[in-house]
């Protein structure tokens, strides 16, 4: 994807794994110059993380690669719980449950090899002339000039890059110095960047050692194609079915002995440990495509950003936890989903650099919560079956990200008149700081069914979602006309944000709940179906919460608890999280929200 042709870039990304590639996709087809380097000579070939939660798939959809991911992914539909009883030899099935969270209204998780996710993200970048990916390249020194950090046009980050000589781990060849405005370390658990930035990991490195293997099994275990938690007296296995007839198993191996060093673990040791837990069923390996052993660590960096928000760390570079929690690739991608749009808007001159400070304040607490969850994760599977359903449901909501709520800041604000916390909103999903639920909608113009996050492309745009209610009723339609006029008013900066640069900094979407045949698209205010001399009308901004022709009714108003008469206005950040919730005609709250950090670019 290019060679080292320029010494100055806007963003230098160290590490081309899931986090680095996802971050680079936030600059897709922009004018921001990005250099992505990785010490590995080749992409990931097998193994590593591969469990994808629905939120992560939504992010891939915003990059435009969601259909490719879904086409290859193996969906997980059922979970079997196996336990042991006193006086009974071996394990027995306790229950089978659906692998779902009802509120999602779609599959909760799927499996796709990390190598394939990386492939699709890298392939997407081939269309971006502004992004260069170099392999077999690593940083050897870094310096950040404090005198230049306060100047937006300066390149305060200086990084010496080197190339490893083929066949040698010791001989590095200097390939030049890169000057960058920002640098992001996405270089994994053994992060060079973390050490260079003097960021410390806080937490524990336990004595527990686990083995993991991807293999085609020869077994008489009946639930081999379900997600399984096997809780025996001598350990707990997490079993996850994969594509190509394979399964993945996470297995505890002996600890507190000479075997406690992962380097001493062999595939035979892992297999023997698995056989003891899965007894009385037999287990053999037909073929094994990948295996590894690791020591469980639960640690979080004391900082996610340094040097006045010129240097950042993301993913495994700044937090580590047990892969059994199934959050490895998910937290990495979600970290950079939080950071990418902020860097893009600042570099494009559309937002004040103060928004970069919110990366650490938003993502570090999430990492800390994940570590706390990880520490108690195994306790869940030693609980009695009577309590398992409720506890597992809570865990499912957490790992899916539904419980995340970013704290108040300049980009997460409560609407006027609700005080600092707005306690009446805390029980709802439509709340500032939480991710917008991925509701199903029907396009007004042609009846096409879509989900809202498929429409929220990773372009760096904010969206104002106007839930206008049943606009077939004259009073509600008149209210909508007024709102449309106010949103487009050029005498206020908000109008400039909506109608300014191409693409506009703020996009307005209308979601009504009237019968479609009672609404004429071109009778709506122009802000909801703007005209372009080159492309004509934009027909893809008006949606209805109605019955679709083939996928049923999404019931978005019901799921989000929006009154069909009162309506609601929701500002959604570029990463899909809610910035503010207000009354449908409270345009002033929208103006106040953007006034705190946005800059008008014309």
From TrEMBL:
Keyword Transport listed: no
Protein name, per record: Phenol 2-monooxygenase
Organism: Pseudovirgaria hyperparasitica
Family of the protein in this entry: Belongs to the PheA/TfdB FAD monooxygenase family.
UniProt domain Phenol hydroxylase-like C-terminal dimerisation: residue ranges: 428-599
Single GO molecular function: FAD binding
Keywords: FAD, Flavoprotein, Oxidoreductase
PANTHER family xref list: PHENOL 2-MONOOXYGENASE FSQG (PTHR43004:SF16), TRK SYSTEM POTASSIUM UPTAKE PROTEIN (PTHR43004)
Pfam families, sorted: FAD_binding_3, Phe_hydrox_dim
Keyword Protein biosynthesis attributed: no
Higher taxonomy: Eukaryota, Fungi, Dikarya, Ascomycota, Pezizomycotina
InterPro entries: FAD-bd, FAD/NAD-bd_sf, Phe_hydrox_C_dim_dom, PHOX_C_sf, RIFMO-like, Thioredoxin-like_sf
The FAD-binding domain, residue ranges: 9-373
